[in-house]
Amino acid sequence: MLYSSILLIDDDEDDQEIFVTALKEVDSAVVCQAEHSAREALRKLENSQVAADVIFLDLNMPIMNGIQFLREVKKRESLKNIPVIILTTSSNSETIKETKALGAVDFITKPNNFIELKKILQSIIL
Question: Model pTM?
């Protein structure tokens, strides 16, 4: 198993539930913490209230969006080496370039169905 602890940052509760369910079907041993707020997730990471081997990050969120979060996490010595995978509805090539330039290791456009999400997670987690 490549990752045993995942932090999902996505303000959409339905998307969170689908992600967690798909992840459990891929590998029930992987622990996933979901956060609705990028700002709150950053605070918890800084205070060691949450640990993550990898972060799945949505871009379109209020208060602090995914790009702002990515910039902040990559500035922090204790957090900058955590891989960040963008998981969003966007497929804009400029956004993909920007997030990768900021340090994201991958950019995934949210799939339209559960089976496809499971395949994506299998390719990343296992």
Answer: 0.96
Quote the pLDDT of residue 2: 81
What own/partner pairs with CB < 8 Å and gap ≥ 24 does 47-50 have? 50/7
SS3 106: strand
**Residues near 103 by Cβ (< 8 Å), separated by ≥ 6?**
70, 74, 80, 84
Question: How far is it, in rounded angstroms, from Cα 8 to Cα 107?
Answer: 14
Mean pLDDT of the chain: 95
**Phi, psi torsion values for 86, nearest 5 degrees:** -75, 130
Q: Are strands 5-9 and 54-57 parallel, antiparallel or unpaired?
A: parallel
Is 5-125 in CATH node 3.40.50.2300? yes
Whether the Cβ atoms of residue 89 and residue 110 lie closer than 8 Å to each other: yes
Percent pLDDT > 70 in the chain is: 99
Residues with Cβ within 8 Å of 36's Cβ and at least 6 positions away in sequence, in order, are: 10, 11, 13, 16
Domain ranges (residues) in the chain = 5-125
How far is C-alpha 120 from the chain's CA centre?
A: 13
